[in-house]
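User: I'm putting together a teaching handout on how sequence relates to shape, and I'd like one worked example. Could you take Nuclear transport factor 2 family protein from Fibrisoma montanum, show the sequence you're using, and then write out its predicted structure as tokens right after it?

Assistant: Happy to. First the sequence, then the structure tokens directly below it.
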Amino acid sequence: MQNLREQVAALNDLVAQYRYPEAFDRFYDESVLNYENELPPLVGLAAEREAMTNFLTAVADQPHTAELKNVLVADDVSVSEWLYDFTHKDWGKRRYTQITVQRWKGGRVIHQRHHYATN
């Protein structure tokens, strides 16, 4: 089994390539809670998959950027800083920094919160 730093690096590599389905299969718990800023959570991996499918369908430009800037790993927590740059069919052009905090258990993400500006 990989140590947490290796798992986080592998997960972030998949995210940087927009390979979310593979990331979910390899690293997310079926009961994961996912928060976007202060919104109510998406509960469970099925809800997370649906939301990500909807998002990826709406991202209009190619290529889009998901650039990893920094990573912290301690105990069972990882924090990743991302630069995202894309065009969404409904939201228009977006370029922002996002902080993602993840709690891990048994090699899987069980809780995740994304922090970013919404305006």
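A couple of points you could highlight for students: Helices lie at 4-16, 20-27, 45-58. The chain has a mean pLDDT of 92.
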